[in-house]
Specification:
Layout: H1 5-23, H2 27-48, E1 50-52, E2 57-59, H3 64-67, H4 78-87, H5 90-93, E3 95-99, H6 101-115, H7 128-134, E4 149-155, H8 175-181, E5 200-207, H9 212-231, E6 243-247, H10 263-276, E7 281-285, H11 299-317, E8 323-326, H12 329-338, H13 353-368
Parallel strand pairs: 3-5, 3-6, 6-7, 7-8
Antiparallel strand pairs: 1-2, 4-5
Helix pairs in contact: 6-13, 8-9, 9-10
Length: 372
């Protein structure tokens, strides 16, 4: 009877070969997998590991060695942040914010962090009447082009922020309304905005508003970008940006995934655009704490939104290559409950300076230690 040992060796050889060919990760794949997992850890830390004190916040130090956040608490680390921004590629420094006035204020709060002592001060800080109405605030905001599309530049050496610029005609006052009429309204009639400038961060804003109209405007904006990417023709507003931050929760009635007019429609378009522009990165920013109205703080509603994010939206977002999550929902709810974060007087959604700087700090931390 012939020995079975050679046959056994041959069988084991085939098994080993199949494992190498079909199952074994390459060093590059293992590196990517490890990097993505590390990014997820840091995403979770920003979402869940914020600790609120009597009048400040901090991040749990357990994740500091791995994530190396430049902001550990509500302190400025301007030199460190600017230096780390300088180390990013030019295309990774520039950020486009899509949303309503909350997104616009986040843009200026990021500029405020980078500016340090050179940060531009909000005129409200020097106007007693406005102070009485809104409270004392220093983080800059602007009423110019505030319902439009524009960009500002921040010098990484000095921290100084430039004036607004836009490639849109001056006649356009509300870009969201124009997009709803015709997505080609996004096409620039002036020379394309500046890009790839060493030592400069470009921060841009595309206004879409709130409610169901905002959702439709977002869809049309992405349709315009997809159309431009397919034809390889530029010229749409802010389409030179490779980093997009989308404000989730512009309209709670569309927070569904199983309909094209729900959030599933946005995810579908993001997936298509990323497939056409592989260097594009899209960050979905969580639903920050807000009052349902100025006199009623509905925490039960907030918890339902968190459940939707954790069980439905975020798992779907993570399936799309090039997308990331900055979930500020839990931390801002806890920040308001602790009394550290507060809204403007008479406002159901705008934070005072501390809240705006907090949101911008989380974004800066995310950008400097995420999959970008």
């Amino acid at each position: 009877m012939p020995s079975l040992f050679p046959l056994l060796q041959l069988f084991l050889g085939f098994v080993l070969l199949a494992q190498i060919v079909f199952f074994r990760e390459t060093e590059e794949e293992r590196g990517v997998s490890s990097f993505v997992e590390s990014c997820r850890v840091c995403e979770q830390a920003l979402a869940n590991d914020v600790v609120w004190g009597e009048n400040s916040w901090s991040l749990e130090l357990d994740n500091q060695a791995k994530c190396k956040f430049p902001f550990l608490e509500a302190k400025k680390a301007v030199d460190d942040v600017r230096e780390r921004f300088r180390q990013l590629s030019n295309r990774r420094k520039d950020i486009l914010f899509i949303g309503n006035s909350v997104s616009r204020r986040q843009l200026y709060a990021v500029a405020h962090i980078l500016g340090g002592e050179k940060a531009r001060v909000n005129p409200i800080a020097n106007n007693e009447t406005l102070q009485e109405r809104y409270g004392i605030q220093r983080v800059f905001d602007s009423k110019l082009k505030y319902h439009n599309a524009f960009e500002v530049e921040v010098n990484l050496e000095s921290g100084e922020m430039g004036e607004q610029s836009s490639c849109l005609p001056d006649s356009i006052e509300n870009i969201a309304e124009e997009i709803l009429k015709d997505k080609n309204a996004m096409r620039c009639s002036k020379p394309q905005l500046k890009m790839d400038q060493p030592g400069v961060v470009r921060l841009a804003f595309l206004y879409v508003g709130s409610g169901s109209k905002a959702h439709k405007a977002v869809l049309k904006a992405f349709d315009a970008w997809i159309e431009g990417a397919k034809s390889r023709k530029g010229g749409y507003v802010l389409d030179t940006y490779n980093m997009i931050v989308i404000q989730v929760g512009l309209d709670s009635s569309v927070l569904q995934l199983d309909r094209d007019d729900g959030y599933g429609g946005i995810l579908q378009r993001v997936k298509e655009l990323v497939s056409l522009r592989e260097d594009l990165r899209v960050i979905f920013s969580g639903i920050h704490h807000h009052f349902i109205n100025a006199n009623h703080d509905d925490f039960e509603y907030q918890e339902k939104l968190r459940e939707f994010l954790d069980k439905s939206l975020w798992p779907s977002v993570r399936k799309i290559k090039g997308t990331q999550i900055l979930d500020t929902t839990r931390s801002t709810i806890e920040g308001v409950r602790s009394g550290v974060l507060e809204h403007e007087r008479g406002s159901s959604w705008h934070f005072m300076d501390k809240g705006r700087i907090f949101l911008a700090s989380l974004l800066v931390n995310h950008l400097l230690r995420s999959c970008v």
